[in-house]
Amino acid sequence: MADGSAAALVKTTCPYCGVGCGVSGAVGQAPSSDGRALSVAGDAAHPANLGRLCSKGTALGATVGLQGRLLEPTVNGKAASWADATALVAKRFRDTIARHGPDSVAFYVSGQILTEDYYVANKLMKGFIGSGNIDTNSRLCMASAVAAHKQAFGADLVPGCYEDLDLADLVVFSGHNAAWTHPVLFRRMEAAKARGQKHVVIDPRRTDTAEGADLHLAIAPQSDVRLWNGLLAHLIRIDAVDRDYIAAHVNGFDAVEATLAELDQSPAAVAADCDVALDDLLSFYKLFADNPKTVSLFSMGANQSAQGTAKGLSILNVHLATGRIGKPGSCPFSITGQPNAMGGRETGGMANTLAGHMDFAPADRDRVARFWGAPDTARAPGLKAVDMFEAIHAGKIKAVWVMATNPAVSLPDAGRVREALDRCPFVVVSDCVETDTTAFADVKLPALAWGEKDGTVTNSERRISRQRALFPAPGQARADWRIVADVAKAMGFDGFGWSSQASVFREWARLTAYENTGDETGRVLNLAGLSTLTPETYDQLLPIQWPVRADGRGTPRLFTDGRFQTPDGRARMVPVRPKGPADAMDAAYPLSLNTGRIRDQWHTMTRTGLAPDLCRHAPEPFVEVHPADAEALGVQDGALARVITVRGEAVALAKVTERQRPGGLFMPMHWTDAFAPSGRSNHLIAPNLDPTSGQPEFKHTPARLRPYRETWKGFFLTRDSLALPSGLDLVWRRIPQDACQQHEFAGRGDEVERAALRKGLVKGLVGELVTYEDVATGARRDAWLRDGRLVAVLYITINGRLPPRDWLAELFAESELSQDARSALLFGRPPGAPVDKGPLVCACLKVGAKAVQAAIVAGAASPDAVGAVTGAGTNCGSCRPEIARMIAATAAVPAKEPAHV
Ligand SMILES: Nc1nc2c(c(=O)[nH]1)N[C@H]1C(S)=C(S)[C@@H](COP(=O)(O)OP(=O)(O)OC[C@H]3O[C@@H](n4cnc5c(=O)[nH]c(N)nc54)[C@H](O)[C@@H]3O)O[C@H]1N2
Ligand SMILES: Nc1nc2c(c(=O)[nH]1)N[C@H]1C(S)=C(S)[C@@H](COP(=O)(O)OP(=O)(O)OC[C@H]3O[C@@H](n4cnc5c(=O)[nH]c(N)nc54)[C@H](O)[C@@H]3O)O[C@H]1N2
Ligand code: SF4
Ligand SMILES: [Mo]
């Protein structure tokens, strides 16, 4: 524990990614401004992480404050009691259903709620309201993998476990930037790589995962199916498929082989279509053929595609044909994103499944209805996320309840989603904080956040772990399952009277075991061994992988006996054909816009945005572009650029980099109205869907890029976040700092625009104003001081440069400004040596790019050596690939000062 506190350790699970790391938390004695202090460490006894945490997990303590929290229910913006809010939600849903039928209402939920929450929400919608209209943000995330699993294995089953990542001789990362998105697993694979494991990365971008890999295939966007089909054809050609395994356990091989024959599968033809070097393709084929112990990880580069199901199947086909499944060190491995994406898939959070891996087939449906005592249980799937919001837009769905997700930011075509929410007669949002989506809510319901809630989640390897409360519930916040159960009761439904999350879990576990034979003809998802947990044994539950047998034993690996959950027990290979991206590029939109994640932010930044250290690796929205494209378009590195699609425009900092393919752009998905309204990505994105899974093609939208060409720029540092004056056509971004909020501005107007901004910013500032103006450069520097402390700083320039911000931001921490500091404020230069750290490379130990660069220039030639000098990379290690990249870049070219903008 960082503060050495003697407080009791609580073992819980990290709320971020699907690795599902165990966390030991200790509530500290010294209260923060919210009266909350927490120190965390990795739980060495948790099998998912064995004590490690990444930068996001390490910074959890900085995110538990009560700032921005929803602490009481509100109706139309006014505080309401739980009784009134619950009654209103129940009445509006009941009335809407009475008038327009059960399909006129919907729930949109998320992989960030607990299994217990998911179970209750699904039981209410599908069982008692009697509509299939509950879907989850896993539709944007895992739906294609789910569809592929169901077709190939007969159910949504993830065969492997993390131990397979240690045992594999070859790991293939397909559209998976594990170094940033599943860092703790990546560390584990780096260790295996040091023992000789080979890594192949298939990604149009050279990510940090690709940086240290043995082979990087920077394929043309959306050409994965061609690549994997080509691999299968090659393995058949050289007789490297496992004929015995196929004969014993797999159907469909002949049909797949026949489909392959429709195209020229020669390596030269495949390499040309995927736009990779023939030698690289042949190296991949050889590595694959030579290493039976192969794990193929696939993530959003596979799933988030209009052919996501086909991409998944093309990977599963290769593994089935080679028998590389159900064996130690060998499996296809769809890695999950959210902490409880798996729990949602299990309990039926997706519109096209019922619960417990049972579907709408009459026998399944009747079984679930019997178990619930719910004769009205839905008989057909409901609307999938994108279609659901389209139905809201069209007025067919008239009441929606959004839980633990921020669709106004994260759905594709987000502008239309906002229109839909705006039009919807009744919008309920359960969240912990205000978000871009709560802005549309008629009723806001305050949910418990991580550190307060209590229940279970399932990670990527089917491991069920407990999240446990560290803090008491703040204000009137409540557990999601209880909020839903209370509404269900108020709607007049029986079967929602649980006394605790333990009793919800027990019922859920019993459903998985209900009429489940427990032998090879049964459902694999079976928690029989957990269906008798008492509140005490539930509290003490240790991490365990399902299925959990009646004797309480878990199951690390599935399909070890070659049996699958199909009627004949055989897996199915399914023919899939390559096709291009859904929307083709044209002269007006010649570039392919790809989107995804950055290392230190989580989704819509509602939590990671609270930790200044996590905001400084990539402080503002950016767009990556290849140097050839940038030059042709006049776009400069570090300058603002406009990303334009048929749906809209965003403005972001251009990062000109050879890590990007020519013709491609990449933008992070994270920024919101609260941090950078112009830097949002999703109003640009076409809602093109995979026809089977309904998953959107987030990784490709035709786009063009232009310089922004601001006429002035500036920044404003202040102690509080700012309510920006409305109606100004400016670009602004907010970057949280330790002692202040940094706001960056740029505009294309004249003095009138700057005056309007200044007026808005200055309003309400109290303090002594000191001003410096330089007519030659159009620079103006204002500082406000009160009782010797800095209150705010506003610097604006027309054609000059702006100084580094770090030293100014640090002045906010001082209780009394020195005379030197005061004059430096107006000179616009720090008094002594500049303290600008550059972007934070190591978020855990706060080491900036400049310190790392200095260590490299002084001779540190490996990440270990840089770590020894600076500390960077010695905690979670997530920045080690970046440090390796900086070392390589320094070796290649003389060091260059990064430009200030
Ligand atoms: N730091 C951080 N970690 C996270 C999250 C986060 O927000 N922040 N979110 C979590 C969640 S919910 C998820 S779903 C996971 C996602 O984890 P990842 O899937 O690793 O993340 P992404 O960055 O969305 O996409 C992965 C890669 O797909 C590549 N890609 C794009 N198009 C194609 C293509 O046509 N073919 C191939 N092969 N690749 C392509 C992109 O260039 C990108 O590098 O991360 C989880 N972990
Ligand atoms: N362009 C682009 N868009 C994408 C993606 C992409 O790669 N590119 N990826 C997609 C993927 S894979 C995903 S998973 C989604 C994620 O997108 P979202 O689900 O919209 O993202 P989050 O920011 O995680 O939203 C979670 C919300 O739930 C709240 N919350 C957290 N815990 C709880 C809780 O216990 N109860 C309640 N009631 N609320 C809680 C948080 O405060 C937050 O507002 O984005 C998708 N959108
Ligand atoms: S890898 Fe990081 S974000 Fe993911 S669960 Fe572990 S600590 Fe949390
Ligand atoms: Mo996700």
UniProtKB/TrEMBL annotation:
Gene3D superfamilies: 2.40.40.20, 3.40.50.740, ADC-like domains (2.20.25.90), BFD-like [2Fe-2S]-binding domain (1.10.10.1100), Dimethylsulfoxide Reductase, domain 2 (3.40.228.10). Its cofactor is Mo-bis(molybdopterin guanine dinucleotide); [4Fe-4S] cluster. Residues 555-579 are annotated as: Disordered. InterPro entries: Asp_de-COase-like_dom_sf, BFD-like_2Fe2S-bd_dom, BFD-like_2Fe2S-bd_dom_sf, CT_Nitrate-R-NapA-like, MoPterin_dinucl-bd_dom, Mopterin_OxRdtase, Mopterin_OxRdtase_4Fe-4S_dom, Prok_molybdopt-oxidoreductase. Residues 7-68 form the 4Fe-4S Mo/W bis-MGD-type domain. CDD domains: MopB_CT_Nitrate-R-NapA-like, MopB_Nitrate-R-NapA-like. Keywords: 4Fe-4S, Iron, Iron-sulfur, Metal-binding, Molybdenum, Nitrate assimilation, Oxidoreductase. Belongs to the prokaryotic molybdopterin-containing oxidoreductase family. NasA/NapA/NarB subfamily. PANTHER family: NADPH-FE(3+) OXIDOREDUCTASE SUBUNIT ALPHA (PTHR43105:SF9), RESPIRATORY NITRATE REDUCTASE (PTHR43105). This is Assimilatory nitrate reductase catalytic subunit.
